[in-house]
Amino acid sequence: MFLIAISILLLLLFVSYYLLVARFIHGWDIIKPIYISNNAAATAQISCVVAFRNEQTILTKLIDGLKNQQHVNYEVILIDDHSSDNSRALVESLIADLPHFRLIKNKGKGKKTALAAGVAASRFDYIVFTDADCLHPPNWLSSMATTLKSYGADLLVGPVRLTEPRNFLQHFQTIDFLSLVTSGAGAIGACSPIMCNGANLAVSKKVWLQAQSSLKIEWASGDDIFLLQYCKAHKKKIAFVKSQDAIVQTYPEQELKAFLRQRARWASKSKAYTDRFTIYVAYLVLLTNIVLLSLPLALLVNLYLGLGLLGLSIIKIALDYLLIKRGALFFNIKLNAVRYLAIACIYPIYIVISVVWAALGSITWKNREV
Fold first, then answer.
1. C-alpha–C-alpha distance, residues 196 and 5, integer Å
2. Do residues 212 and 227 make contact, with C-beta atoms less than 8 angstroms apart?
3. How many CB atoms lie under 10 A from the CB of residue 233?
């Protein structure tokens, strides 16, 4: 009787997960591709806001990408969040002959107050946020502007990918990041947004100002997800920019510890989530992966239970692949089936470690405790 009850619970858990992934797949499929409209883009005036702290090794590439944008009506506001290296002096020299670029200093502390200072200094009605460790294609802002005007959206979630991987750790990060971005886009397509990335985000200035009390200034990060949850709760229009011209690239972590620390920081924000569906998804994914870790034990305890769990696991891995494959095609990422299977087997261990670290360990970011 006990085994029957366990089997039913496992079946319910995995079916719930299957339905969730199927929903995301359908959501991704129904999002219409965006093609740049010069007429629509030309009428959108955009303020691009970027906070930085100790980023002197990558700021040249950042500013090169931003100054080469094909969009006409835009400004760039760079906010120095108390850098202790040569970042500020480097930015001053790089933008000296760029009148539509401005550099200001964060009078507060942390990324959220830096972004607030940038928005306060902005002149235009639409704000586009990105991170200092990003690479931007020349039509990035034009794609965002086209979507803002064509859809009349209050919040735009732009596509983000990691740069080309060079080793297994970076391949793992690429697949993990791809799953997050594709799931997030699919959830938007299914009218149930759950996540976004501050590396590529656009919002009307009016909505951003309205959301200030919901952005949880006490949390060092989360400027993106808390804004998304505000917009969802207040019935604002949210859209995903399904345009390859809008793809922003960012860098993978170079070491395993740094990667796990980053993911633990992301997971730690879940303590402050207010959206019920987002919380449901987080717990469903966690529970499913914890159960996957118990597969060897299930095979030892009861062969039939173990084989049943193995079958459920195979279906999960296949469904995940169908979702991730869609994102890989869009981002032009090669998805090796053998490598994917290896990553899928390791994935539950990584999920549990990240969550435990987020719950029990101390998390630092930019030499500050989160």
1. 37
2. no
3. 12
Q: Which SS3 state, helix, strand or coil, does residue 302 take?
A: coil
Q: Is the pLDDT of residue 369 over 60?
A: no
Specify whether 207 is located in the same domain as 315: no
Q: Does pTM top 0.90 for this prediction?
A: yes
Domain final residue, candidates 238, 272, 306: 272
Instruction: Tell me which residue of 152, 151, 145, 103 sits closest to 124, measured CA to CA.
Output: 145
Rounded to a whole number of angstroms, the distance between the first and last alpha carbons of the chain is 46
Burial pattern 33-61, b for ≥16 Cβ within 10 A else e, equals ebebbeebbeebbbbbbbbbbbbeebbee
SS3 284: helix
pLDDT in tens, 150-165: 888 999 999 999 999 9
- 323 plus 262 within the same structural domain: no
**pLDDT at 3 exceeding the cut of 90:** no
* Spatial separation of the C-alpha atoms in residues 180 and 224, rounded to whole Å: 14
Q: Is 288 left (phi over 0), alpha (psi -120 to 50) or beta?
A: alpha
